[in-house]
Amino acid sequence: MQKEYQTITSIAGPLIMVEGVDDIKYEELCEITLPSGEIRLGKVLEANEGMAMVQMFENTQGVGTKGSKARFLGKTLEIPVSEEMLGRVFDGKGKPIDGGAEIIPEKRLDINGAPLNPFSRDYPNDFIQTGISTIDCLNTLVRGQKLPVFSGAGLPHAQIAAQIARQAKVRSEGSGDFAVVFAAMGVTFEEAQYFTDEFRKTGAIERAVLFINTADNPVVERIATPRMALTTAEYLAYEKDMHVLVIMTDLTNYCEALREVSAARKEVPGRRGYPGYLYTDLATLYERAGRIKGRKGSITQIPILTMPEDDITHPIPDLTGYITEGQIVLSREHHRKGIYPCINVLPSLSRLAPTARKVTREDHEGMFAQLYAAYARGVEVRDLAIILGEAALQEVDKLFLQFANNFESKFIAQGEYEDRTIEDTLSIGWDLLRILPKTELKRVKEDHIAKYMDGKSAAEPEDSEEE
Fold first, then answer.
1. pLDDT in tens, 22-72
2. Burial per residue of 154-174, b for 16 or more beta-carbon CB atoms within 10 angstroms, e otherwise
3. Other beta carbons within 10 Å of 388
4. Of 62, 55, 65, whose CA–CA distance to 27 is shortest?
5. Predicted confidence (pLDDT) per residue in 253-275, tens digit
6. CA separation (Å) from 371 to 259, 275, 402?
7. Which of 158, 195, 305, 369 could form a disulfide with 251 if both were Cys (CB 3.0 to 4.6 A apart)?
8. What does residue 15 show for φ and ψ, rounded to 5 degrees?
9. What are the strands, taking DSSP E only, across 106-198?
10. 333: how many CB neighbours lie within 10 A of its CB?
């Protein structure tokens, strides 16, 4: 029989202290009964001998040290899962908010999941096509990878996230069913409505599960939302053999929620006031991506975070970079120029891309190296032209400057609903390389030049000196 405790001694923000308890476990659920008879749910955040700190999923208004009761349920927070979740929209606690019926669960799973044995992990190597050229060609996404997007305030990361969710697909033969689990944390009502409408308008919601936590929801719900999404993804991947892409936005709001709870607990703050366990906490989310030997399904993660003041050395992007396999960085300068998606190619990186480039097309590896090198040189020439003037540039440098401008307007820039195949992307790359002299194409093989440039001669610079 479960005991009821009338020993609530203090209330601080979302935290309630209950004393005189026994046999209480970390993460255990707790029901708080108000004097009015209303019941609110919380979870044990800290359990010591004879004392439990409970974090509420709702506000603590009306909870008093006298007249309120605490009852511990002996179980952790669970989510009911079923294939019926595909096509549905839930809140951060896993409750349907799309007007549909309650889910009839096949089972209930602990949202904290179970850690994967590193020995059981399989190496990610299958290409996922997002339809976005700068990702597919230069920062190739691999099935089972975690590849974050580093954004900034006001940049169109929401549109990019929705486009990836709509267009992503596994290209390998016999790849099986593909699903998207989308988790939005601390977003505005406008953003929440945008995501829901985008998925419904394009029909992508039929293969997606949405978890929406808005900014006015309780802080503890924001902490639970990504775990709800990842538990659903694990069920679809490892029990239903699906390839699941998990998109989480915005991880900065999640980390702010951790900081708020940490401050309420009066913990010693770490860098910039974030808790010292921020790295460990983020790892419990990111490391739930991957492939398992002997299982057909997989989980690929694209966490999206906004860098405060566009500072990539801020603790959130800094620690994320340590855990994940690369990053896609958005550019405010590109955004000002009207380039969408405003992905900054040079600092972006996908550490697992070489394995995927081997299975797309034979010229992909060389194309990546040549485009990256040529664009980097073109950006250097552009900076030099600002100082010296374009007239002072050599003819070959002018060609690289032209290449950089065309690369931004034709390769990086594309429509919000434009879904390019990897073949389309590589063809655009070859068209751009025709701007440069063949003598400068040192990173692509000659037989690939002959095959994919259709025997057309690359432009040769004119001699500036007459003999």
1. 888 888 899 999 988 889 888 898 888 889 999 888 778 888 888 889 999
2. ebbbbebbbbbbbbbbbbeee
3. 10
4. 55
5. 999 999 988 888 888 888 889 99
6. 41, 41, 13
7. 305
8. -105, 140
9. 107-110, 121-122, 127-129, 141-142, 149-151, 169-170, 178-187
10. 10
